[in-house]
Amino acid sequence: MDDPIFDRSDGVWLNEPEQWTALAGGLHVVTDRATDFWQETHYGFHRDNGHFLGFPTTDAFTAEMRVQGDFQALYDQAGIMVRIDAQHWVKAGIEFSDGRAMLASVLTDGRSDWATAPYEHDPRDFWVRATVANGTLRLQVSHDGRVWPLMRLSPFPRASCYRVGPMACTPERAGLQVAFSMFRLTAPLGRGLHDLA
After folding, report:
1. Rounded CA separation 164/157 (Å)
2. Which residue has the higher pLDDT, 9 or 88?
3. Domain ranges, residue 98
4. How many domains does the chain have?
5. Is the pTM of this model over 0.90?
6. Are 130 and 139 within 8 A, CB to CB?
7. Would 121 be classed as within a structural domain?
8. Quick check: 150 and 93 in contact, CB under 8 A?
């Protein structure tokens, strides 16, 4: 599972964007207008029209990737998604909120939650990692691809397989350009919770 993921043929688009390009070992996406993933909480609406290129996994894995984008408008977002179906998924990365680019994750198990935090580094260029194993989700973020502090730890629905890959949405506009690269999919890392490697 260490092969360059974007070169594989088993990635499936959910809501393929009008503009995207596969590059050598990478992916460039331009978001369509009014795209999002969200289920009900607070707003009352259901959205499942964001862009997601999902690759199949086993029941346990670690996935990580580099994400580069210029987040400027409210709710501009990009990062990683792990998905079972429209009611069971997580998305994590950078999202523009309250006038700045923030760390953000949304975990949906029937209904969506939303967790944000300030990001201390350059939000236009970051790495994000998701590990799923034994009913647990671990999210990590990195500014350099080497040091990986914890972003979130939570229960996550068990499944025999998932889809994982790059995600991007712009609920309030179109035209966010995002480059995804250095996507790796491996067996779960199995490191201690406070191991930053």
Report:
1. 14
2. 88
3. 5-184
4. 1
5. yes
6. yes
7. yes
8. no
